[in-house]
Amino acid sequence: MRPRLRLGQRLTGTIVWVPQPGVTGIGVDLGLPVGGFVDVLHLPRDPARWPATGTITGFVIWRMDERPQIRLMPADPAYRREDFTAWLRRQHHPAADVFDAQKQAERHR
What we know:
CATH architecture: Beta Barrel
Distance between the termini: 31 Å
Strand order of the largest sheet: 1-2-3-5-4
Number of helices: 2
Radius of gyration: 13 Å
CATH class: Mainly Beta
Helix content: 10-25%
């Protein structure tokens, strides 16, 4: 399954758990054998702006490793941290580079 997935790829999923809003991230059912997780660092500071359980929305693959879980970032800017653009520039992570390159390509279309 993972060979078909890549950093920066967009997926649709359903929020299945929000255990401690504002403290930990959220769980996402991607319809795949492994679940997804959005870290609290990717979400707005105000948990009232987080997607609620049952929300179907888009995500971007941020990281995949040996864990049986895909790390995600919200594709919808409404569900991202307020300083997302500045935060992204400070990240030294392959997914940040992929996401930034995709956004630049979209602007030039």
